Amino acid sequence: MAAATVRIALATYRPDPGEVSKDGDLPVLLPALEAAGAEAAAEYWDDPDVDWSAYDLVVIRSTWDYSWRVAEFVAWAERCGKVTRIANPAEVVRWNTDKRYLGELGAAGVPVVPTRYLAPGDAPDLPDDREYVVKPTSGAGARYAARYTPGEHETAVRQLARMHEEGLTAIVQPYLTRIDITGERALQFIGGRFLHAGRKGAVLAPGTAYDDDKVAHPGIRPWEPTDAELAVAKAALAAVPDAPELLYARVDLVDGDDGEPRVMELELVEPNLFLGLHPESVPVVAAAIVRAAAR
Questions:
Q1: Counting Cβ atoms within 10 Å, is residue 63 exposed (0-12), middle (13-18) or buried (19+)?
Q2: Using the 8-state DSSP alphabet, how is residue 271 labeled?
Q3: Kind and range of the H or E element at 250?
């Protein structure tokens, strides 16, 4: 008897009217899943008419509007996880949508970008001796992120005030200037194994307003990670609480002042996989998703 066909939903965002989806992975991943023997469909995560229980697996892919309504998104993931399997798991989604996880990684011994947090009501304690970055603990695509010098204190304070008015907690980090030379590296993992990597330029240009749109992945191109980069990425994944099973992961690294790689972000919710840069990875990702759905 032939095995039953698994049904897979790839959760994505709803583009604005007249806008085309910015997800370049879906057009190649959907047919690859079909070729691997699955029934696959892209579904808007916030569509109330979708019956998520009809799928064997829901894979969060490009829910790139979630950062404007994090509580709603996490609640959806938790509801979804009660009626079917969701990847990554809802408890991972809850943990990873708040960048205070960087503090947990650092406490576990993972090299991370030094990070402080300023919650609503906290004084605007900002650096006065070097460039720094301010951004929210919940954000995507460099939303509400900006780079400042100590001389731009008043502008940074206005940003903090705006974020705090919206109930957002701010991250304050030193701007690691090596990123302007060595860029940011994105290491992708599928099914717990290294898949491929990319290198991109710095996202935050001096003088760009925090509420301006940014190019999230400027100049992205394939990259062969160093042993040190792989070691830091694997250490970060190993430090995720309760050692959950991760279908996919992206670890974003930059060089510290000492030239050693540090974790800038750990993307376990909706990372772009950059499959257009790595066509050889498409069947590998599709096979891993189908295996997960068939369990």
A1: buried
A2: -
A3: strand 248-255
**Model confidence pLDDT, tens digit, residues 209-249:** 666 565 677 789 999 999 999 999 999 999 999 878 899 99
Distance of CA 264 to the CA centre of its chain: 11
28: which 2 tokens?
Answer: 């190649």
- Helices and strands, counts by H and E, the chain: 8, 13
| Cα(66)–Cα(49) distance, integer angstroms | 18
Is 216 exposed, middle or buried (CB count within 10 Å of its CB: 0-12, 13-18, 19+)? Answer: middle
**In the beta sheet, which residues pair with residue 10?**
42, 59
CA distance 179 to 252: 12
Please state the separation of Cα 101 from the chain's center in Å.
Answer: 12
Tokens matching residue 83: 């009626």
Closest CA to 171 of 130, 135, 132, 210: 135
Q: Which residues contact 104 (CB under 8 A, 6 or more apart)?
A: 239, 241
Q: Rounded CA gap, 115 and 48, in Å? A: 37
Short-list 58, 74, 50, 82, CA closest to 7: 58
Query: Which residues sit opposite 194 in a β-bridge?
Result: 189
User: What span, in angstroms and rounded, lies between the C-alpha atoms of 149 and 175?
Assistant: 9
Q: Which two tokens stand for residue 136?
A: 């929210």
pTM: 0.93
Structure tokens at 288: 């891993």
Could you tell me the strand order of the sheet in which 146-148 lies?
116-118, 170-174, 132-136, 146-148
In whole angstroms, how far apart are CA 293 and each of 85, 191, 233, 273, 290? Answer: 8, 12, 26, 19, 5
pLDDT in tens, 50-105: 999 999 999 999 999 998 899 999 999 999 999 999 999 999 999 999 999 999 99
Q: Which of 203, 253, 199, 207 is nearest to 230 (CA)?
A: 253
